[in-house]
Amino acid sequence: MSRLSRLTPRDLESLSAYADGALSPVERRDLDARLAQDPALRQALAQIRATSSLLRALPQIRPPRSFTLTPEMAGIRSGRVRFPLLPMATALATLAFVVTVGVDMFGGVTSNAAFRAAAPAEELALQAPAALPTEAGADALAAGALQSAAATNVPESAAMDAMAPTPTAASEDAIGEAPTLGDVGEAPPAALGTATADPSLEARSAASGGCEACAGEPQVLSATPMDKFAAESGPEAAVVTQEMEAQIVTSMPEATSLEARQPGGLSALRWVEIGLAAVALALAAVTLRTRRRAR
Amino acid sequence: MDEAELLRLAQRGDLEAFNQIVLAHQTRAYNVALRILGEGESAADATQEAVLSAFRNLRSYRGGSFRAWLLRIVTNACYDELRRRKRRPTTSLEDLAPETEEGAPEFEEWLASTADGPERLAERSEVVRAIQDCLDHLPDEFRIVAVLADVQGCDYAEVSTAIGKPLGTVKSRLARARARLRDCLQRHGELLPPAFRLQGEASS
User: Fold this and answer.
1) Distance from CA of A83 to the nearest CA of B (A)
2) A75 to chain B: nearest residue by CA?
3) CB distance A17–B31 less than 8 Å?
4) According to the model, what pLDDT value does residue A294 have?
5) Statement to judge: residues B125 and B191 lie in one domain
6) Lower CB count within 10 Å: N or C terminus of chain A?
7) Mean local confidence (pLDDT), B17-38
8) Residues of A in contact with B19 (CB under 8 A)
9) What CATH number does the domain containing B11 carry?
């Protein structure tokens, strides 16, 4: 009766490794020779093998439950960390957009509070001479109802069209028309405002703010008496006013009046605004999509 | 998708990819913990803890056998549990049991004589209990090596990775674990229910 624990540690280790086929070729040859001559060693090897095989034969027990991780358990990597980043970026882009628009509006026309209040009305007043006032108002409404990124562009181009006829006529008529058209003019932003129930619309309503801003400067040009305007507005607007004056004197029609709009209408700042609006919209869309997928 | 690809995704924080890897490894991980801890509930807890820890430390995995890397975490979780338990003095059966009488059938002869072979034998609950009891009486570091190498069939290199010790340590611990287990099982062979013993003797 040999007990394995009575073997020398070295023999025990060699036999154990031999059973696993883990000896070097030289070591194995040496042990093979000893095994051939030593029955006790052979018996010990048989004992090791039997023990090992019995352990290996232990059945695998099925786990009582699955150990996969939920996002909560995992420390929220996929859930909470990715989330605040996107809404934050969306909010930042929207904020940057609003600030830019603000700078655009109040940097050009510093202290004229009346403009801010009456802006939409004046926009329409400006469009009035272009065609029938009702038609222009309908256009603006339709543009607002679109509630899309295009909202930034449509009213602007509408304003461009409206500018086509001679500015002299426009400024005269506009003053008369403005109060009556005021209600219609304010409708598009209002329509957008009600739609903001959808979270992604923060950016869109901000974009509608952009529309007002786009239309802001041209309005200024025609709806206000020139001298008063020149006194109140910033240097940029003053320059524009002078150009307008020149055009009125020469009574240049359509084409030049569009040019007069250029300096204020398509400045670098305007492009930045459009870019920011697009970024804010895209981020809002991505945020919504990820949120929906995560649920 | 193969495991390497899943691992790359998981390392970038993809929880779904990680869970697929977990599904592939959890039975083995649980069984390692079960044989080391000797009991299902704490084995499940240790496995869950190990899976969580694996996810948090996934960046520290740099190639090689993922199975061995994971088993190392499982082993560590088991060590934590073992430390938590007040370690009872290991009064091994070896010290208490009388010397085996001469002439009693050797454990391995008895094992060889059973018609079923070790696989069928090890399915019998009393045999499983005997093996687990013998494992439980091994010192922790011996038991862990025996579980990894013999119960799970890991090679020496994997065991070395899993316990963070050199190959020489693995070899010597495994040999000593086997010697102790054999002596323990030898005694258990006689402690097994008579019907079981009779069956073994009858077929010899």
Assistant:
1) 14
2) B56
3) no
4) 54
5) yes
6) C
7) 95
8) 68-69
9) 1.10.1740.10
Nearest to A1 among B31, B100, B118 (CB): B100
- What is the per-residue pLDDT for A169? 41
Same domain? For B51 and B123 the reply is no
Subunit contact B171:A49, Cβ cutoff 8 A? no
| pTM to 2 decimal places | 0.52
CB–CB of B131 and A74 under 8 A? no
Low-confidence ranges of chain A (pLDDT < 70): 1-3, 76-84, 107-266, 291-295
Number of domains in chain B: 2
Parent domain of B42: 3-84
Do B60 and B131 share a domain, yes or no? Answer: no
Helix axes A9-19, A25-37, angle to 10 degrees: 110
pLDDT band at B31; cut points 50, 70, 90: very high
Share of chain A above pLDDT 70, in %: 40
Q: Give chain B positions within 8 Å (CB) of A7.
A: 179
pLDDT value at position B88? Answer: 56
Do B100 and B193 share a domain, yes or no?
yes
Same-domain pairing of B198 and B107: yes
Q: Do B102 and B175 lie in a common domain?
A: yes
Residue among A13, A59, A64 whose CB faces B122 most closely: A59
> Residue B115 sits in a domain of what CATH number?
1.10.10.10
